[in-house]
From TrEMBL:
One of its GO terms (molecular function) is DNA binding. This is Heat shock protein Hsp15. Residues 5-62 form the RNA-binding S4 domain. Keywords: DNA-binding, RNA-binding, Stress response. PROSITE patterns: S4 (PS50889). Pfam families: S4. InterPro entries: HSP15 (IPR025708), S4_RNA-bd (IPR002942), S4_RNA-bd_sf (IPR036986). It comes from the Bacteria. Belongs to the HSP15 family.
Length: 127
């Protein structure tokens, strides 16, 4: 087996992207780095490299432990890297709830809902 693999093939093989073309596009867009350097789709990755790529607005940091060129099972794919990504921050989103069948919201409840949704509660008023 070869000692290096294309980064787009490796990302697809270890199930970090759904398709190889998506992995290629991620590389072209500059979202993938190998050892701190921006990676082109054909950039070689080898065992011991640190691969960083942007996923849903956060960086995933993977240390390569095995090379794959074919997509395989999820358990085999997870054995090919060590995930060193920091824990994602927990975001608290306030939720406005009302009892079902409780009727129309009161003026106070409507203003609270507007505040949570970021709407202007003064609509419909002259002045």
């Amino acid at each position: 087996m070869s000692e290096t693999v294309r980064i787009d093939v490796w990302l697809w093989s270890v199930r970090q992207t759904k398709t190889r073309s998506l992995a290629t596009n991620e590389c072209k867009a500059g979202h993938v780095r190998i050892n701190g350097n921006v990676a082109k789709p054909s950039s070689p990755v080898k065992i011991g490299d640190e691969v960083r790529y942007r996923f849903q607005g956060f960086d995933r940091i993977l240390q390569v432990t095995r090379l794959l060129t074919k997509r395989s099972s999820a358990t085999q794919a997870q054995a090919c890297y060590i995930d060193k990504s920091p824990q994602r921050p927990k975001v608290y989103i306030p939720v406005f709830t009302r009892e079902r069948g409780a009727g129309r919201p009161t003026k106070k409840e409507r203003r609270e809902l507007d505040r949570i949704l970021g709407r202007n509660s003064n609509y419909g008023h002259m002045g």
